[in-house]
Amino acid sequence: MLGFSDVSPFGGEIDTPAVQALADDGYRFSSFHATPVCSPSRAALLTGANPHRAGFGMVAHADPGYPGFRMLLPTTLPTLAESLRANGYATFMVGKWHLTLESRMHDGADRASWPVQRGFDHYFGSMDGFTTLYHPHRIVRDNTVVTEPFRDDEYLTDRLTDEAISMIDALRAGDETRPFFLYFAHHAVHGPVQAKPADIEKYRGMYEDGWDRVRADRFRRQIEIGLFPPGTPISPSTTENTGGVPRWDDLDTASKELFAQHMAVYAAAVDGVDQSLARLVAHLKEIGEYDNTIIVFTSDNGGTAEGGLRGTRSYFSQFVLEAGLPHDWTRDVERPLDELGGPRVHGHYPAGWAHVSNTPFRSYKTSVHEGGVHTPLVLSWPAGLRRQGGDDGLREGFAYITDLAPTLLELAGAQRPTRLHGEPVEEADGVSLVPVLRTGREAEARGGQYLALVGQRALFHGRHKAVSPALRESDDDLSTWQLYDLVADPAETNDIADSDPELVAELAERWRREAWHNTVFPLDDDFSLFVQRPATDLERTLPVTIRLGTPTLERWRSARLTALRSFVVEAELNGELGEGVLFSHGDQGGGYMLFAEAGELVLSYNAYGVMHRSRAAVRGSVRRVTTRFDALPGFRWAISVAVDGRELLGGVEVPMMVGMAPFAGISIGFDGAGPVDWDLHERRGAFRHSGSLRSVRYVPGAKIPENHEVMIAIDEISARLLD
């Protein structure tokens, strides 16, 4: 989700000296493209195959089962890790995976699609689409969930860097010469956007001039450093291009102050990624391996407008509002500006800053327009790709994310396997960029590179790009197709379709042929592909008993027990209440918990950042504590708590947790992952139960009538905005 202009080699003002140093000694690509969303880009990067052929026509939150939407990397397409390991490399990965179905990430799942099974010797990170950078919700090491808690001040970007360096050092302790491949997939700067306090302070006040001024300054620098020739048009900041972003000067003072601080947090998170890169480079230099290391820096899609026009300090609530559900809760919980970016706030910058991130292009992540797919690419190899003479390292021709795998294999002198798991492999789609790097000439011609996402279509061919933002009833209807000359107009400001209808027809037909070849059909024009197959459908949810000592239940499995339904939580004890958490589900972005303290039962409910607490005294022996969540109209729950059949708490009405909340999974006997109740966390930490708790049983009840339709709407919004 890093935008094209967010780092200094591409015009950004954010302090990114490590990326700049790579660009100064290596190569920048001014026309590199990814897919509009994350999982497809990652599948294409690792396999060199177009995303639908690699099984990822959409993010790994849907499970329709069609060939282009398997959400499972085929065993006939070797990953970069599998190819390089076959050539003698050690293979490491840290960070975001997001190439495994949600339903296959729990502890009892088939791990065939997990990183270690797809070629990585070691892995550390979150397999989910994103996680929080403080108190990450679920971290996996190799094939096992990490159970040790993160400190309040432990920042995930730094921890991932520590782990990456440790993997390299462990290899070198055992083998001084074996080559290695490290895939470092940062969780930053995906939302919720968080950063270290010192880095946030560094950018405080920097963005008070507003997004219009910052965007203009970035474009000026892009012209100065040669990314675009003088006279290149920039996409206008109109409603059509921005989704309604207001002029900065039209905002009130309070809004300007809030929005500027949101951007300061985002800039600090980008800065943190650059610091991570700087640490890796410094370590490689220290051990004498930098000069002979190929380093690639890029992004999986363009900057995102998921923060909405005003940004948010309640990341999960806003997706419910985007889905159009009738309720009365807010999408932006009031929080002090000083808390933005810290562990207590799950926030995201407003769309106006995403418009800046994607300078000079139009639209955002999830769009097939350039703002969604035009991303930075820097490649450096001091010993093997030294620039000659007056070569400035700028490469201007079209390149696509499928090109990285064949490029890296050729540079490494490694052969792609011809067989994998005893079966012949399929051909990749990408072309090697090595000739482009060495000579500066264009990459070899390709038949045309397609894009496709939820009814959107696009095709790159030569200097032209055909775009169809929406489907009509027939493929033969060309009225939705636009045409752009990306050489003269890289920001898609001038639709020339009317001047060359024959070329439009030719490219539309070429797109259709590419789509059939790449298993793009059926087109997901109405989000019907978000319907789950029976194996993962909500109807198959059964009660689950979780015993004391069990690691936190995985997010998706936890949500199936509670999402858009009534449910009951039954805690079994050995005759005494004791002290500590009985159960906890969620984090600072939203969730609930029940704990015992000083002879009282306390229910804490975090409504997307707004806290509700109820308490009642408990006397005598306790065998069972039963907490009921009864679904009410308007997407609300009525919560009641009973001890051995006697109700102690009742009448607690709260907004339902819908969509991605609760994000952290269910913990029994402690407050796991991110804290639900920060005040309790400050006083008691994880507040592990004293020992009288035996187990907790979750019993899912009746679904609300709108369950199926709402789940599709939530999945639609999550896919469009969240990945």
Write up this protein.
GO terms for molecular function: hydrolase activity. Keywords: Calcium, Hydrolase, Metal-binding. By secondary structure, the chain is α+β, with helices and mostly antiparallel strands. The protein folds into three domains: 8-311 and 348-439, Alkaline Phosphatase, subunit A, CATH 3.40.720; 449-530, Arylsulfatase, C-terminal domain (2-Layer Sandwich); 537-722, Sandwich (Jelly Rolls). It is 26% helix and 21% strand. It contains 17 helices and 28 strands. A six-stranded antiparallel sheet has the order 18-28-19-24-25-26, with helices on one face. Helix 4 (156-174) runs parallel beside helix 8 (253-286), helix 5 (197-203) packs across helix 8 and helix 6 packs parallel to helix 10. The N and C termini lie close together (8 Å). The mean pLDDT is 92.
* Main structural class: alpha+beta
| Total beta strand runs | 28
CATH domain class of the largest domain? Alpha Beta
Beta-strand content bin: 15-25%
Query: What is the CA-atom radius of gyration, in angstroms?
Result: 26 Å
Q: Report the sheet with the most strands, covering strand number, pairing sense and barrel closure.
A: 6 strands, antiparallel
Please report the number of helical segments.
17
Spatial order of the strands in the main sheet? 18-28-19-24-25-26
Model regions low in confidence, pLDDT < 50 over at least 5 residues = none
What oligomeric state best describes the polypeptide chains here?
Answer: single chain
CATH homologous superfamily grouping of the largest domain: Alkaline Phosphatase, subunit A
Give helix % range: 25-40%
In the residues, how many domains can be counted? 3
Residue-averaged pLDDT? 92
Question: Whole-Å distance between the termini?
Answer: 8 Å
In CATH, the topology of the largest domain is named Alkaline Phosphatase, subunit A
State the shape.
globular
Keywords: Calcium, Hydrolase, Metal-binding
EC number: 3.1.6.-
Organism: Microbacterium capsulatum
Domain Sulfatase N-terminal: 3-414
